[in-house]
Amino acid sequence: MSRRPATRRTPRPASPAAAPKPAVTVRHYCQGIGDCHLLSFPKADGSLFRMLIDCGIHTSVKGGPALIGDIVADIKAETGGKIDVLVVTHEHWDHVSGFLTSDDLFKDFSVGEVWMGWTENPVDLEAIELDKSRAQALRVLQGASRRLDAERGLSPHLSGVRDGLQSVLGFQFGAKGERVRAARDAAIKLSAKQPPAYFEPGAAPLSIAALPNLRIYVLGPPRDKAALRLEERTSEMYPLGPGGPFARALSAGLAVNETGDGTWLDELSPFERSVGTELSAVLSGSASDTQGDIGAFVWKHYSGQVAEARPEEDPDQSWRRIDADWLGIAADLAMQLDRGVNNTSLVLAFEFIDTGRVFLFPGDAQIGNWLSWKDLKWPVGQGTVTAADLMAGTVYLKVAHHGSHNATPQRQGLELMTNADLSAFIPTNEHDAGKVRWREMPYDAILTALADRTNGRVIRADDAWLANKNGKPAFASPSGSILAVRNAPRDASRGPGGLWVEVDLA
Prior knowledge:
Blueprint: E1 24-29, E2 37-42, E3 48-53, H1 64-79, E4 82-87, H2 93-96, H3 98-101, H4 103-106, E5 110-117, H5 125-150, H6 156-169, H7 180-188, E6 197-199, E7 206-208, E8 211-220, H8 225-229, H9 245-254, H10 279-284, H11 293-302, H12 329-342, E9 347-352, E10 357-361, H13 367-371, E11 377-380, E12 383-386, H14 387-392, E13 394-398, E14 423-426, H15 430-435, H16 444-454, E15 458-460, E16 482-489, E17 498-505
Parallel strand pairs: 3-4, 4-5, 5-6, 10-13, 13-14, 14-15
Antiparallel strand pairs: 1-2, 1-17, 2-3, 7-8, 8-9, 9-10, 11-12, 16-17
């Protein structure tokens, strides 16, 4: 059982008059599929300490680079281009793309230091191993994507795999093929203080000299490899790595043999290479056994061109073919990679010492990351702070991974957030998510739970009122942890919606 530090106080009842001044102001940008959050902490001298968490947008969002350009220009206008701390939560394009696509605007910024998770540390042995696994998976998935693009007459299932694979690769590459690593490195170079600060759970809470009333706890990413790859509440995916069955099988299937004749050599095939004939050779007539019964049978049933079909027979018999079905496992590997990277998110909990109130920013942390927090504890003063204490004190939540189904757990997540003042923001545009086949983002059950836990104090990046300069949320403000809400619509040339929503929090 934890012993809370003497400085921690029981969370106060919700009362607008009890917190006339904000502890922090957060400007959430509303690009929809992507994260960018500007935190402004008041200092004793009246100036502001600025922290920027991520800046990116998914490749599927039409006009995304231009929209990010508007966002970076707004950040510069608001801060004068001075950022005290830049936090890069993890290596996904929708969190870092702006540092590359808007580098012409960022080059004039003054950034004090960059914070990242241990998984980005180039001299950390476990991070190096993880990076090699990611790189291998990416190479295989790119090959599978090219192969699917080249295939004709894909089944509905494989068409879905092709489209989904392109969507997932959009987290790893920009529209012009830029690697997410280049965007991450562009963020690192913005600070003269090198190398970045790399953090992991278990270390003492972070402190900032200019903000003596603030403690910052690092909850993730976990060191445990099983936690990094855990994507569902009750199961784990296969591990990433050179021996991973998905990556190994796809690599074998995509490998061209060393003779250079263009045939595909599958090292996992149960048959010798000399057994059988390439289907393409039979259909093209170049194989020696294309004459006779075998050739006629193959042509009739697998060419997709049956000239004399019986009345009850579909002339197109291509549905019988399974020669590209092995590429379907690319979907499993892609999801494994995507969620594994999400679990490397740097997770920060901001606690104000005088009130014990907590503001939680979990990046895109998925279940494995969340579950790894439950045993964390920190000695603070004469007491001990646990992750459960931090969750109980949470009054504001930046919802992880756009509200997806496996990014906010129930028992180890929302049910631990018992403060009556809880409020939340979801960086999601449901329409854009639907275009890339994310049909349940945000997830209805999470939306319902959030609405119940927050008494309706939930803001979404695609809320209709954000497009109106005088728009107001459905809930009253001040209410709970939210003292005030302001917003700015997008430039009309960027389409409807809000550019940002800003909340004063206490």
